[in-house]
Amino acid sequence: MNVYRKSLVVQLILFFVFFIIGANIIITHFFGQSAPWIGYIIIVLLVGLGVVGYMIYRRSDDRVAVVTKQEMNLIKYLLYGYFGVYVLQLILSTMSWIDQMILAIVSGVILMMIALGGMVIHYGIIKIK
């Protein structure tokens, strides 16, 4: 499948945003009460990445990259996995019988690993093809 290279770069930025969201779960658990300003820094960072992604997407670049069916399926499963883990973390964080520290660390690390996998796949597609 042919995909515009700029779309792949925007998707790479999106996986970086997913990585930051996973790290935010861990950071918020440990530093949320003592340093609430960290939340503002993360919001500014996410908005900045959104602006950069929009500027990249609006740029005129007609280069095309070939994405195989296997790569598309892997990206799709990574996104489904991220969504599943994130929703599960949101549901489990409301339950008192679960240790919240363990939940924050485990879910944050899993989300960051999924996002890192997506970034590696996109980087490989962009650079090799």
Helix-strand pattern, N to C?
EHHEHH
Mean pLDDT: 91
Beta-strand level of the residues, as a percent range?
under 5%
Distance between the termini: 12 Å
Number of domains: 1
Q: If helices are DSSP runs of H or I spanning 4 or more residues, what is the number of helices?
A: 4
How would you sum up this structure, described in words?
With 129 residues, the chain is mainly alpha-helical. It has one domain (2-128). It is 79% helix and 5% strand. It contains 4 helices and 2 strands, in the order E-H-H-E-H-H. The chain has helices at 5-31, 37-58, 69-92, 100-128, and strands at 2-4, 64-66. Strands 1-2 form a two-stranded antiparallel sheet. The longest helix has 29 residues, at 100-128. The relative contact order is 0.21. The mean pLDDT is 91.
Map the helices and strands.
Elements: E1 2-4, H1 5-31, H2 37-58, E2 64-66, H3 69-92, H4 100-128
Antiparallel strand pairs: 1-2
Helix pairs in contact: 1-2, 1-4, 3-4
Task: Please supply descriptive tags for the structure shown above.
two-stranded antiparallel sheet; 129 residues; 4 helices; mainly alpha; 79% helix
